[in-house]
Design a protein that fits this description.
Length: 468
């Protein structure tokens, strides 16, 4: 009889492992299992120190040489002569003759069908109504009873205001502390600010007026216009595509895609759906509309008198007399003297605005009528286009009557292989019987004999859920 095998040994794909337990409560006395995926794939090496890095340290290195003022742009830049861009004459648009075919694939393949309006299959809403009268008295109105409660009298003592008959004679703090005194202005020791007038006349000469010397201008340099020189060679507006391309007759490529046969029918659908079968129509009555109650105003007139309006008593009070002494303002009947120091010292001078110094125009303004004839219009000579002869050999397509061979190496040499399923995918591997699980978490199974396994083996399903 063969010894039991672990699930790690039964696995053929290498993805199934037994769940190793962190601790073991019951030890059977076997040796500890040291086989793990890390130990198998990564062997242990001897103690080797890591290599030293040859990367230079990031330290500040002082540049001892002298910095040059030549940049890469200065050393590599080469000035080029600027050439004017040649002018290209735009070709006149010539519309193509004939009519445009507006037919599309949709208009060709689409067949219009007559559509009838869909009948509603949803049943009408049923409303169960009774002929009896509804009692609309709520629980609060039925249970609540109003008590006859008498109004309590106020226990507040009425305080009637009596105005004082004697005059208020208490003085304030300001009246006690303030003593009126006469104003004595102090003598001013400030020197008088009197401007001294000068007898010397005003000197209006500036450095610009004394130093400016008018020089005679040189005649302006006028650049002569370049005369237009037309080209002697004719203009070639034919491209490589126009010269070399020639439409050659050929057959269209045949599609290897199978035809998509459209299965359609113009007959009307004569069947009952699940919605029509389950939901039958029923009658629905209109909802009742409640009538709003009419507003009934309360009887009697409204009393607008408030407690403050009834109890308030108006008293006549005289305004308080100010006790602060009146300031003694000096009033004189003499006319106001409006002369100031600025008016006396600064007199208005008679000055006129200085004219702007302008340069005389050297170029006289043109006179006469403007002619809109440009240099291009006057010098342009239209030439007849002569197409260049093409020396490119004619690319002739040789038609072949042999059929196209669509066989590939994949179609001829591909052989399908049977997909094997790992026995560890199943909860119980076929052909094995569960024995026990050791303290490390390994599940052991014993292989059955061929005769016993055929009679008691589990059927192998086609699709198995992977259990890792």
């Amino acid at each position: 009889m063969k010894p039991p095998r672990c699930l790690c040994e039964i696995c053929t794909c290498g993805r199934h492992r037994c769940p190793h337990k962190p601790t073991r409560i019951y030890d059977n006395g076997q040796q500890p299992c040291l086989t793990t995926e890390y130990v198998e794939k990564y062997p242990k090496y001897s103690n080797i120190s890591p290599p030293w890095s040859l990367k230079p340290k990031q330290e500040y290195q002082v540049h001892r040489g002298k910095m040059e003022g030549i940049t890469t742009f200065k050393s590599d830049y080469l000035p080029y002569d600027i050439v004017k861009r040649p002018f290209r004459v735009q070709e006149e648009h010539k519309p193509k003759m004939g009519e445009i075919e507006l037919g599309t694939t949709y208009q060709k393949d689409y067949n219009a069908h007559k559509i009838q309006p869909v009948t509603l299959v949803r049943p009408l809403e049923r409303k169960h109504t009774t002929g009896g009268k509804l009692d609309t008295i709520p629980t609060y109105q039925d249970d609540y009873r109003s008590w006859e409660v008498q109004r309590r009298e106020r226990s507040k003592v009425e305080h009637i205001y009596h105005p004082p008959t004697e005059k208020f004679g208490n003085s304030t703090t300001f009246q006690d502390d303030f003593v009126p005194r006469e104003l004595n202005p102090r003598q001013s020791f400030k020197p008088p600010c009197v401007a001294k007038l000068s007898d010397v006349p005003f000197d209006s000469a500036t450095s610009h007026r004394t130093s400016y010397i008018a020089h005679q201008l040189e005649p302006k340099f006028v650049r002569s216009k370049e005369e237009y020189k037309p080209s002697n060679q004719p203009f070639e507006d034919l491209t490589t595509h126009r010269n070399d391309f020639k439409g050659l007759p050929g057959q269209l490529a045949k599609s290897c895609k199978p035809e998509n046969a459209k299965v359609g029918s113009n007959a009307h659908f004569k069947g009952v759906t699940e919605f029509q079968d389950r939901f039958q129509p029923w009658l629905v009555s209109l909802p009742e509309v409640r009538k709003t109650k009419e507003y009934v105003p309360p009887p009697g007139n409204m009393d607008f008198n408030s407690t403050s309006h009834l109890d308030y008593v108006k008293h006549e009070i005289s305004p308080a007399v100010p006790i602060r002494p009146v300031s003694n303002g000096r009033r004189t009947n003499a006319p106001f003297e409006g002369t100031t120091t600025t008016k006396e010292d600064f007199k208005a001078w008679g000055s006129c605005r200085q004219e702007i110094t302008k340069k005389q125009q050297e170029i006289p303004k043109p006179t006469g009528k403007f002619y809109d004839l440009t240099t291009f219009k006057s010098h342009y000579i239209p030439h007849q286009i002569i197409p260049a002869q093409s020396f490119k050999p004619v690319r002739a397509i040789v038609p072949n009557s042999a059929p196209f061979q669509d066989e590939t190496m994949y179609r001829t040499e591909y052989t399908p292989k049977k997909q094997e399923i790992c026995p560890a995918n199943y909860p119980s591997p076929p052909g094995y019987v569960y024995v026990n699980t050791d303290s490390h978490g390994h599940k052991f199974f014993r292989q059955l004999t061929p005769e016993f396994s055929e009679s008691n083996s589990n059927p192998i399903p086609k699709e198995v859920a992977v259990v890792s």
